[in-house]
Amino acid sequence: MDDHTTLRSRKPQAVPAAKLALLQALEKKVLWLSTWMIHNANHLRPSRDGLKVGGHQASSSSVATLMTALYLDVLRPQDRVAVKPHAAPVFHALQYLLGHQTRDKLERFRAFGGAQAYPSRSKDGDHIVDFSTGSVGLGVGVTLFASLVQDYLRLHELVPSDGPPGRMIALAGDAELDEGNIFEALLEGWKHDVRNLWWVIDYNRQSLDAVVSDRLFGRIDALFELVGWRVVTLKYGRKLEAAFARPDGAHLREWIDACPNSLYSALVYKGGEGWREHLLRDLNRYPGIRAILDEHDNEALHALMTNLAGHDMEAVLDAFHSITDDRPTCFIAYTIKGYGLPLAGHKDNHAGLMNPAQMASFQTSMRVRPGEEWEPFSGLDLAPERLSDFLRSVPLAKAASRRIEAPQIAIPAEIPAPRGKRLSTQEAFGRILGGIAASDGDFARRIVTTSPDVTVSTNLGAWVNRRGIFDRAERLDTFREENVVSAQRWTMSPRGQHIELGIAEHNLFLQLAALGLAGPLFGGRLLPIGTLYDPFIKRGLDALNYALYQDARFILVATPSGISLAPEGGAHQSVIEPMIGLTQPGLVAFEPAYADELAVLMHWAFGQIQEPHGESVYFRLSTRPVEQPERAMDPALMEGIVGGGYWLREPGPDCELAIAYCGAVAPEALAAFEALREDLPQAGLLAVTSPNRLHRDWRAAVTQGGQSAAQRLLAGLRPDAVLVTVSDSHPATLSWLGGVGRYRVLPLGVDRFGQSGDIPDLYHYYGIDQDAIIDAAARAFLL
Ligand SMILES: Cc1ncc(C[n+]2csc(CCOP(=O)(O)OP(=O)(O)O)c2C)c(N)n1
Ligand SMILES: [Mg+2]
Question: Closest Cα to residue 204, out of 61, 47, 100?
Fold first, then answer.
């Protein structure tokens, strides 16, 4: 095992013996319940589909001590935790002991409506789960951004700051540190001087496929220290430390320190005989070692050699309680995957399950009588009253729910549309936010923006100039101090309302996840807006999905988009993102064409992200200036814009052609429509502001009954009418509209990579210009 010397020899702080005994007893119970839960799910509940239910007995067991110490002693209600995915059974067992989880849910672990495979805010409930986990690395990263959000709220006086801040804690698997997003987050955290953050690494030296590389972990502490963290290594338990202190004990320590991870794991699996064979071979020349071997039978030798600090309650408590400042701290806790189980150490144990015979002997060794498997205290030596009194006194037992209710923020009656003959939706966005920035009151105070190094190019400049950049410390704008003329006034202070991130889209989405949970996690609701270039949504897509899965609420503004970005070329031109908008759960997507539409939609979005059953909102915007319609906003038009579509030009009776467009191609659609109307006077022009909303509403109507907005809009068309659909995105964005009736569809759009050019050339080449629309209509009538 590679050596981490950092703080290895901290002085132990005495944990009262009575408390230690209680925690050690309950740690055993947690190991039992979590193992039983998985066994019950796989062997005792009839499976209806022949699928193995699964569960991770080995991954759970390695954290039983660490999690018992945290949940039953160390944590305070204001602390927030992301638990590694495969520790879900241990997490549920602890919640059960604390009285926050039901036996029924445990019995239905991994079954419909039961406790989830991986901790889930939305499915297990945010009354117990602080952060969902599942996609490894993201739960770890989000704690860092949550810590930043906690500072933000306290420094803006949006939550009380008289009490101690919470610690944001991740219990991470060692292989999670292979995920790049962890290091992106670490660098960002360093820039922001992040505090009150603990990452507890379950160093069981195993991942899913294999044993974790020694080479990597030999450098891990140096890496954390480089970015200002303290590293606390929990390596050897009390028994091994005592053996090291004996004559020749230093050789035993050296031997284990030098033992490769793979050999250590193999010997853990083989047990006492294996240890003896290797130690005799390598260290027999030392009388002190021979004495140790003579005094320990195989079982005792195995217990000694596997006495790692991550399974030593006293060492664990000592390490956690020794941290009293707010410096970010990484605990590297040596553990054994499958500790206490026959699966221990085997490299293939990741999804391994104990068979019924192994389980029966484990049950006997735990002294749990048949029929008492779910009893909280059966098989323990301590009196049940003592155990239940203790559990009632645990800080986390007291609050009924981890969720804090934060009142909704009142939004203005309307958001005025920016004026101008020709505007892009991106410019309109910047002006709308600039207008809000100039206003007073709680609404503007609650907005927080964030962007991964594209603040200026996504048009947040006016907002940032007025509202400033968030920093824990007051920092001067050097360019301003030096009288260098610049359009950007980037004052940094604890009052700033823009969080500037480096270029890392994963970080953006983890930051939005944390900002979007500010209400339920910290009690201070925020209205977060994140901006990025549309094509780079894909770079952070899993983190976006992660944020939405835990019902974080925010507005995402993606701009520029599509080939309309023109000269910047194919690497920056987005094609498939509207399909993400169409299909991503938890997100409502809009692609407006005009500034007045965007004003209506932003107003709606500020309300939507606060609704109990609302969702986050994605705006796909463009840098292309388009001529604005001269019109007054009225309730019917607003309803159409928000509902996903409206007739920009109403069709006549018996209409045989409609053009449906979305976004920046509005001028081409309008021009083609005007030209076609000479021959087809009944034709209509449908403005689609949200393919996503139209589609959802239509699907709900056809599966559950009722009439959808799309059906209502298209109801006046002839049954065999032709629909030409067009958007600066994949043609599937709108082609589904044909299924609303039995319309013949000619779907235009972009289904190849983009390239540099000007808009007329590009629209022509990709077939979304006026001529292409007219040609499509003409072809339709020849069909
Ligand atoms: C992004 C992602 N990729 C792959 C997986 C599948 N997976 C689940 S756990 C795991 C390895 C976990 O190893 P470690 O973090 O060391 O946890 P342990 O099981 O050892 O506690 C993998 C690859 C996943 N959950 N998420
Ligand atoms: Mg591991």
Answer: 61
